[in-house]
Amino acid sequence: MFRKILLAYDGSDGADRALKVGIDLAKIHGAELLALGVQGNLPRFSGTIDEVQEEKLFANDQYGKLLEAARVKAKEAGIDLKTLMRPGHPAQTIVAVAKEGEFDLVLVGHTGLSGVWAAFLGTTAEKVSRHAPCSVLIVR
Amino acid sequence: MEQVWYTAAAWIGLALLASLISIRIGISVALVEIFLGFVAGNLGAHFGSTLFQPNAWINFLAGFASVVLTFLAGAEIEPGAFRRQLKPTLAIGILSFLLPFLGSWAYAHYVSGWTWQASQIAGIALSTTSMAVVYAVMVETGLNETELGKLILAACFITDLGTVLALGLIFANYDYWLVIFTLVTGVVLWRIPAVVRWLLTRWGGRVSEPEIKFIFLILCALGGLAVTARSEAVLPAYLFGMVVAGLFVHNKVLILRMRSITFALLTPFFFIKAGTLISLPALLASLGLLVALFWVKMITKIIGVWPLCRIFRMPLRESNYTTLMMATGLTFGSISALFGFNYGYIDQSQYSVLVTVVIASAVIPTIIAQIFCHPRHTGPLGEAKE
Fold it and tell me: Which of A62, A138, B14, B227 is most buried, taking the most CB atoms under 10 A from its CB?
């Protein structure tokens, strides 16, 4: 039923649970699984280009390690996990990648790393579920 | 009597708080530092504390920060992109500077009744485009890797060059000191790339940092000469950055070390100081002027940039986006306003209005551009490193 599964991955407990579900679903459906790390906290309205470049390097390193760890977990379970990282607003970026890559399922952990703000602004999972072009599974 | 360590601890504590807030909310540390400086400065004034009133050593660190910031901005030029789209880059960059400069100058002088020199400062501060704000927006979408993104960044560079030249030349004394400054700067800029290259090869990468000390030496020496000629130290700093930009591209370690020194010790003092001098009562008394100057900047940027984008056959959405991006401002606007305040060309009330307009221009056009005018093509997705 599912050919391409997009996993929103930020290294949180919720994202790890979504990874496990993603691995299971990929096995059942023989689907392609891609983990997306969104670098959502790059500095806006920056005073210097150097600040943006430094923060981008830091985020690349941080998300590179997270995604590599996810890839190793998936490999141990016998799944070839592809990885991708992009800067931007988390929900918008997940939806955009789901559209561009014509994914037919998006997996999101229920609780990400933005818990405090989520109480006021809604969770990334809620936003993705409203705007994604395909099915969305929020993993609890 | 001031106890220097308490003052230093207070300012560095504020800088640390700004870093933590910046990391948490994803807003640039510069903007957070200005805001915290504004809060601390006004609270200090209200309760009669002098802790956050700039003094001689803070003024030096802030001044040096503005010079190093300008040098780093100058070193960001990408000559290849500049050459590929020379005509649109030059045309958009020059008009993006010239029209807001003339428009804001005229409005401040003829409508608001500012003095000739104060209105010139207004023109310079509001003519700027923030290359850093633009770059941050484009990195989020990969637009900085496209030809459109490179054109916009190169045009920002030209606009900032106009600002720096205006700041350095309008207030200069046209006497023999200016001639000496021009000649010495010319010779130094001509020979310095070879000297820096030699220095990096022969002495680079050592713990005593001879190459960074050399760069600071040149910045201070040319800055001193500029000030003697009643010019501004940021002018030679920007030009120095431009001529050694190519060397910086290939020396990542040097860039990282320069950034560490700049962000840890220098820029907090500049941005916090810029914030402490913004007076809340003055702002509240000048809200109308604040809004008016903001619109003057926006309208003159639109008149200067948008038609040119269309003339160079940029699609409508991209033209709107480019125009809004060119209307942003932050660091050079703050540097210009602070220059005017330090030399007594503007008072604290005028300074407060100008810096607030500059900050508003960093935020409002950026948000509008991101929501309504973002170009549809954002380039290919980048694979994560494995």
Answer: B14
* Nearest to B167, CA basis, from B209, B134, B120, B207: B120
Write the residue in A37, A45, A68 that is nearest to B27 by C-beta: A45
Q: Calculate how close chain A gets to B113, using CA atoms only, in Å.
A: 31
Radius of gyration of chain B from its Cα atoms, rounded to whole angstroms: 20
For residues B76 and A107, give the distance between their C-alpha atoms in angstroms, rounded to a whole number: 40
Of B359, B373, B327, B329, residue with least CA distance to B132: B329
3-state helix, strand, coil in chain A (%, to 5): 50, 20, 25
In chain A, at which residue ranges do the beta strands (DSSP E only) sit? 4-8, 32-39, 81-87, 105-109, 135-139
Strand, helix or coil for residue B144: helix
Contact between chains at A47 and B271 (C-beta distance less than 8 A): yes
Q: Give which of A38, A23, A22, A17 is closest to A110, Cα–Cα.
A: A17
In angstroms, the CA B53 to CA B41 distance is 7
Q: Which tokens in the block code for residue B362?
A: 């960093």
Question: Token pair for residue B50?
Answer: 């002098």
Q: Could you please report the per-residue DSSP string of B44-88? A: HHHHT--TTS--HHHHHHHHHHHHHHHHHHHTT--HHHHHHTHHH
- The ipTM estimated for the assembled molecules is 0.85
Return the SS3 of B223: helix
Of A40, A47, A89, the CB nearest to B28: A47
The side-by-side arrangement of strands in the sheet containing A81-87 is: A81-87, A32-39, A4-8, A105-109, A135-139
**How far is A14 from chain B, CA to nearest CA, in Å?**
20
**Which of A6, A41, A50 to substitute to test the interface with B, most B CBs within 10 Å?**
A50
**How far is it, in rounded angstroms, from Cα A22 to Cα B322?**
41
Across the interface, whether the CB atoms of B139 and A56 are under 8 A apart is answered yes
CA atoms within 13 A on the CB side of B192: 24
- pLDDT one digit per residue (tens) for chain B, 386 residues: 568 999 999 999 999 999 999 998 889 999 999 999 999 999 999 998 889 999 999 999 999 999 999 999 998 887 777 788 889 999 999 999 999 999 999 999 999 999 999 999 999 999 999 999 999 888 877 788 888 888 899 999 999 999 999 999 999 989 999 999 999 999 999 999 999 999 988 888 888 899 999 999 999 999 999 999 989 999 999 999 999 988 887 888 888 899 999 999 999 999 999 999 999 999 999 999 999 999 999 999 999 999 999 998 888 988 999 999 999 999 999 999 999 999 999 999 999 999 999 999 999 999 999 888 877 654 443 444 43
